[in-house]
Design a protein that fits this description.
By secondary structure, the chain is an alpha/beta fold. 38% of the residues lie in helices and 18% in strands. Strand 11 and strand 12 form a beta hairpin. Helix 3 crosses helix 5.
């Protein structure tokens, strides 16, 4: 007996951005027979309008909030929450921020109840959700809150890389506060467990990036490597883990791109995202570690500058959906 394919919830993201467009284009690229495995959480009328404006060949079925999301047959479902009635494409607005957060809340409920096996999230505007009253920095922190997850991390998957961020959406001057023995150990535990669980790596090779230029040059440019990173890495090496570092960040990503490591734990957002997006921009995926369900997203933002023009490429959304299916299958 064949295993039932997972049901995936896809949040529409900020209605004024490209989330709806890339979601529809991505699903249109999949076989029609597979569409019943996807439920878009968003605005039905809005998405239907996009299919006509951009001539996207896909059939959508409207689902009300109290209906069974499993009743689909050969069509993609839209769990209709509205919220996109008066959208000015490419513009930040509190109304769109509220709608985007509503979609995330509903998808989280579906996942926590086991009605869907994974969530794929289209991009939101952090400015818009904050204008709408959301206090969380972004998707990762909000989903962790909704699922009562205390230990979580962002992993970027794409091209030659799997990159985990020690700190995420904080100012650069504040990011060093997250480089403590306890927090670095937490991220190493999450990374090691996830590489084993999701990617089948029994003895994953994890490289830890330094905080400072040249990984501190033995204390000349900072002491975090000596006081914090080296002792934590040594602790995990004594457990038999293949953890190395701290490595100079300016050369580490070259060796990671050559396959020397299975994953990199980097010390702040841009330290990891700049090399990642350079080499994996169109097919990169953001994956949240630690949640009780699978969550992925494309690695780009709302792209307000091209929203509504019909030119957004769905490659990263396709990759995010495929990775979610693989991990949840």
């Amino acid at each position: 007996m064949s295993r039932r394919r997972p049901l995936i919830a896809i949040t529409m993201g900020d209605p004024a951005g490209i989330g709806g467009e890339v979601t529809l284009k991505a699903l249109a690229a999949f076989p029609k027979s597979s569409l019943s495995r996807y439920v878009i959480v968003g605005g039905f009328d809005y998405l239907n309008q996009l299919t006509k404006i951009f001539k996207i060949k896909i059939s959508l079925t409207q689902i009300q909030a109290n209906e069974d999301v499993h009743r689909l047959r050969g069509q993609a479902g839209v769990l209709d929450l509205g919220g996109a009635e008066k959208v000015e494409m490419g513009k930040v607005s509190a109304a769109c921020g509220v709608a985007a957060v509503d979609y995330i809340y509903e998808a989280s409920k579906l996942a926590l109840r086991g009605e869907v096996q994974a969530i794929v999230t289209a991009p939101i505007s952090k400015e818009a959700i904050h204008q709408g009253g959301c206090v969380f920095p972004g998707h990762t922190e909000l989903l962790a809150h909704l699922s009562k997850t205390k230990s979580f991390a962002m992993m970027m998957v794409g091209g030659p890389f799997k990159i985990v961020l020690q700190s995420i959406h904080v100012a650069l001057k504040d990011s060093v506060r997250f480089v403590t023995p306890a927090l670095v150990g937490e991220k190493l535990d999450l990374t090691h467990r996830s590489l084993r669980q999701w990617f089948g790596l029994s003895h994953p090779r994890i490289a830890v990036a330094g905080v400072n230029p040249h990984a501190g040059e033995n204390g000349a440019f900072g002491k975090e490597e000596i006081k914090i990173l080296r002792p934590v890495i040594a602790k995990y090496q004594r457990k038999g883990w293949k953890v190395s570092g701290p490595h100079p960040p300016d050369t580490l990503y070259y060796w990671a791109s050559q396959g020397k490591y299975d994953a990199v734990l980097c010390m702040n957002h841009d330290q990891g995202l700049i090399p990642f997006k350079l080499l994996a921009f169109e097919n990169g995926v953001n994956m949240t570690l630690g949640l009780p369900y699978v969550r992925t997203s494309p690695d780009h933002g709302t792209a307000f500058d091209i929203a509504g023009k019909g030119i957004a490429k769905p490659h990263s959304m396709i990759a995010a959906i495929r990775l979610a299916e693989k991990l949840a299958g």
